[in-house]
Design goal:
CATH topology of the largest domain: Nucleotidyltransferase, domain 5
Structural class: alpha+beta
Mean pLDDT: 85
Organism: Sporosarcina luteola
Strand content: 15-25%
Number of helices: 14
Pfam families: HTH_32, Mu-transpos_C, rve
Low-confidence stretches: 74-80, 140-148, 403-413
Strand order of the largest sheet: 8-11-12-13-10-9
GO molecular function, one term: nucleic acid binding
Protein name: Transposase
Helix content: 25-40%
Distance between the termini: 61 Å
InterPro entries: Homeodomain-like_sf, Integrase_cat-core, RNaseH-like_sf, RNaseH_sf, Transposase-like_Mu_C
Radius of gyration: 26 Å
CATH architecture of the largest domain: 2-Layer Sandwich
Shape: globular
């Protein structure tokens, strides 16, 4: 089993014990509910899990943290063929276009169009996927039961999402922006939000780190199934921090009503200010947005808060908030993780680029973590070195250290009498 697979298994186990760790459920009822259920476990496939096993995972996590949830190291027996998250999303989107089509016919069309190969993905795999997301059989048009809710305490649940923002000048051209934000379910306070020039994970990393530093740690983060919210990096970070990462059902944005309502408020109260006085840069857009957020939104009476403002409700419970004991952990847990084997010339390939690493790693498999600022090498969850982009030009002129073996051999040859 590879290190990546070990981490995926650990993330699955953490997701299963998270409700127990955070007191969301009655332990007995929760464990009884798990009995008999079949779970799709990374690497292992579909299996049932005993309550005793879940209790052991919970105990191991409390004693030794996330690392204790990883399977013990052993020889890799090979990985089974599965649909990647991206493939699943694509198939679900295609299915939504032809809901009238029987699943068997839909499966045949996927093979015919080259979307999947019959030898790799079976009909049962596709059928299970569609059933899981309520896109198979007669119940595909069923409307989920929905009830309004609000948590009584601050930082129990943060809703997360992104919204399309205005166009602003970036690099001499008008470019679209994206607003990534969190909102506290109880107080309606926004822990942090910011406009970015793309929908990539880098923006979510910044937003999450700032939110945790400024407003404390939530018990649950509730997001949709977008790519950045389903990333292993976010899953791992939440597991390390003891935060439950929960996702909405596919195609169900209404379940995140509070964050959707906040975005509507931004559209009706903040964007008109930009129309009257356009911004000249992304930096100016964010500065004006943050000022509006603190001076207008947070201090305005909210209809569902019984005549109080989001800031007042938040401040009423300051003594109940949990802040990070060591904020420096945020510098490493949000790094993207990769595993690479170092070549004989001391290099690795990442994102189609060549990086140099210290020579002591040659021939070994290393834990590589990266962000927009650099590429780092970790051992036992600790940064030990940094990888550098290979410069062919600089290497061509670099001074080589003469091998001591060559020198020794040369001296021996000088001492030989040639006849």
């Amino acid at each position: 089993m590879t290190e990546k697979e070990r981490e995926q298994v650990a993330l699955f186990r953490h997701g299963l014990i998270a409700p127990l760790l955070n007191g969301q459920v009655d332990p007995k009822d929760y464990l009884d509910g798990l009995a008999g259920k079949v779970h799709s476990i990374p690497h292992y496939g579909e299996r049932k899990i005993a309550a005793k096993t879940v209790k052991e995972w919970q105990l191991n996590y409390r004693r030794n943290g996330f690392e204790a949830l990883k399977p013990k190291r052993r020889g890799d027996r090979g990985s089974s063929r599965r649909l990647s998250p991206e493939d699943q999303d694509h198939i679900l989107e295609e299915r939504k276009k032809v809901l009238h089509m029987p699943v068997s016919v839909f499966y045949e069309q996927l093979i015919k169009s080259g979307e999947i190969k019959e030898t790799q993905i079976s009909y049962s795999t596709i059928n299970r996927l569609l059933k899981k997301h309520n896109l198979a059989g007669r119940q595909i048009i069923a409307i989920p039961e929905r009830k309004r809710f609000a948590h009584e305490k601050v930082n129990v649940l943060w809703q997360a999402d992104l919204s399309h923002g205005p166009y602003v000048p970036i690099g001499g051209k008008k470019k679209k922006t994206f607003l990534i934000a969190y909102i506290d379910d109880c107080s309606r306070l926004v822990p942090y939000a910011q406009f970015f020039p793309s929908e990539k994970f880098d923006g979510l990393r910044v937003t999450t780190k700032e939110a945790l530093l400024r407003r404390g740690k939530p018990t649950i983060i509730y997001a949709d199934n977008g790519k950045i919210y389903r990333s292993e990096t976010l899953q791992y970070a939440c597991a390390q921090l003891g935060i439950t990462l929960a996702h909405t059902a596919p195609y169900d944005p209404q379940s995140k009503g509070k964050i959707e309502r906040f975005f509507k408020t931004v559209q009706t109260r903040f964007y008109p200010l930009l129309q009257a006085d356009p911004t000249d840069s992304l930096e100016e857009l964010n500065e004006r947005f943050w000022h509006w957020l603190e001076e207008d939104y947070h201090r305005r009476v909210h209809a569902s808060l019984e005549g109080r403002t989001p800031l007042e409700v938040y401040h009423e419970q300051l003594d109940q908030l949990t802040f990070l004991e060591d904020s420096s952990i945020l510098d490493t847990i949000f790094l993207k993780r990769e595993h690479r084997k170092v070549k004989a010339d001391g290099t690795i390939t990442l994102n189609k680029q060549l990086y140099e690493v210290p020579s002591r790693f040659i021939g070994t498999s290393i834990d590589v973590r990266l962000d927009e600022n650099g590429v780092y090498i970790f051992e036992e969850d600790r940064k030990v070195a940094e990888a550098k982009l290979v410069s062919m030009k600089d290497n061509a002129h670099a001074k080589r250290v003469r091998s001591p073996f060559i020198k020794a051999n040369h001296q021996e040859e000088e001492g030989i009498d040639h006849v």
